[in-house]
Automatic annotation (TrEMBL), chain A:
Residues 28-147, 169-489 form the Amidase domain. It holds the Pfam family Amidase. This is GATA amidotransferase. SUPFAM superfamilies: Amidase signature (AS) enzymes (SSF75304). Keywords: ATP-binding, Ligase, Mitochondrion, Nucleotide-binding, Protein biosynthesis, Transferase. It comes from the Eukaryota.
TrEMBL record, chain B:
The keyword Nucleotide-binding does not apply. HAMAP family: GatC. GO terms for cellular component: glutamyl-tRNA(Gln) amidotransferase complex; mitochondrion. GO terms for biological process: glutaminyl-tRNAGln biosynthesis via transamidation; mitochondrial translation; regulation of translational fidelity. This is GATC amidotransferase. GO terms for molecular function: transferase activity. It comes from Struthidea cinerea. Keywords: Transferase. The keyword Protease does not apply. Pfam families: GatC.
Amino acid sequence: AVLKDGLRSQVSAALKEGQVTPTELCQRCLALIKSTKFLNAYITVAEETALKQAEESEERYKRGQPLGILDGIPVAVKDNFNTAGIETTCASNMLKGYISPYNATVVQKLLDQGAVLLGKTNLDEFAMGSGSTDGVFGPVRNPWSYSKQHKEKSAPKSHSEDEESNWVITGGSSGGSAAAVSSFTCFAALGSDTGGSTRNPAAHCGVVGLKPTYGLISRHGLIPLVNSMDVPGILTRCVDDAAVLLGSLAGHDPKDSTTIQDDFKPFELPNLTDVSKLSIGIPKEYHAPGLSSEILALWSKAADLFKNAGAKVVEVSLPHTHYSIVCYHVLCTAEVASNMARFDGLEYGHRSDKKDSTESMYAATRREGFNDVVRGRILSGNYFLLKQNYEKYFVKAQKVRRLIANDFAKVFRSGVDILLTPTTLSDAVPYTEFIREDNRTRSAQDDILTQAANMAGLPAINVPTALSESGLPIGLQFIGRSFQEKQLLTVAKWFEKQVQFPMIQLEEVKRHDSGVLQHQKSASFS
Amino acid sequence: QKVSVEVLDHLEHLALVDFRDSEGVERLQKAIQFADQLHEVNTDAVEPMDSVLEDRCLYLREDDVTEGNCTKDLLENAREKVEEYFVAPPGNIPLPKLEERDTFLQG
């Protein structure tokens, strides 16, 4: 039962009172990771070090001196964050065998507060993708594929055939982290978010996915994709837990000069009861082509929910929404072309055996180390950065970026506090269907609702809302003003309470969790 | 408007990755087509945006040595090294020209 509890409200208290020990928690999570191995959520499980961390935590609790709420709490980290002494691969051949010599700042912060690092989670290679299907360790399976809720709604086939071939994707690129949290193997996980990579899998896996404001959380140690848009993402099972994680991670880092220097004060979320002073904006352009009628209906219902509770709900316009995905495509590939240049085989990572010349060694190393997706983006990026194309594409995209950011600024200036939008166009699709289109097409389709927030650097959060007709999670997204995470999370928490998203019913979890937690949280919102 | 072989070759040189096959080249063509939509947007008198934090001063620290002495750690991950040096094959040798290279673009 403890594995399903909220951090602040229950687990922390349980640890303090000795109802459960950090070692027990750790062992249970490790056992669950083993029994859910078919999900392929983890690339590396750091069993020894995790147990050691758990033991140290236990000592602290015995002395009555826990470091804080996160002391003894099992967490997982996406495999594009550096973790000292633990392999960091970015799901790429380029970094297979690379043992980080240092911890990313966010990892260090978690460890400093006593969190127990269970392992590194799976992703699309170098975080490029929206399915967590394109890494060298194979695709991640959405735990909801094996949920009672989904199986009940699936077309009757032979039981095992169904599971083996028809599982659905997690979304991406932080799919491993989302699956890890969703399947109870950890209480929280770090992801990264450049175009929606935390919010997208959060929506598909029925967990909370927070993209903080750009500049709030340090990127030091996060292997960069797009320096001007990347942020570490937070995945948890409830909004309160996301606030706890945010509190422990946010703040200026001298090692990342793009973190703002303002003082950050961790906060507890109030229990909002009166929403009458809130103004919720509904951007009409987010009624994007391909948006499923199910999600459209849910979005509408959510707007009504706010209206009926007394909030002001207004339709707003973000006119350049249609171009944000194109803009992102150019800026992303351009920055990727630059960021991937560091992988040459000399200092770390894969190195080809070719010895004729430095250039031929670099070329062969990169040939061997990168997959099609990565190589494709590097080449596209280099094209847009060619002298003859620089103004036409790169600078042009930077100008369009300003227009997109201005769209948001204008709407927030007009009195709107929070924007409410869908997170994804549909619920999670089966893997066999997803791979029919190539990565770039898929990303262009799936990122449409999430990546404008990265363009403008705004905070955004996915809140699991209801189950689809297939029994799979659907989430809705809230976008807030820069650095106004407290307001954003407060509203998200209120919404989470209203919708009462159901808990996943996984056969595997029942078997391993001795506590019997069986009260059915029905999906009152669908 | 197809990208010429010269430009493709140039890109392979700049990027030091290969297109590998016709799919790779097609991917670039589609990417360019997709990006061309940008030209529909009127950006007259709009300044390019480098960073969403453009209104702030980034943190600059004092130019003092605060850490280092991690040679051993840094060399750990390199495949080829000699004493405290990374070892590279001979430099200043450009990649062979298109005609002489073993590349898909030859075809």
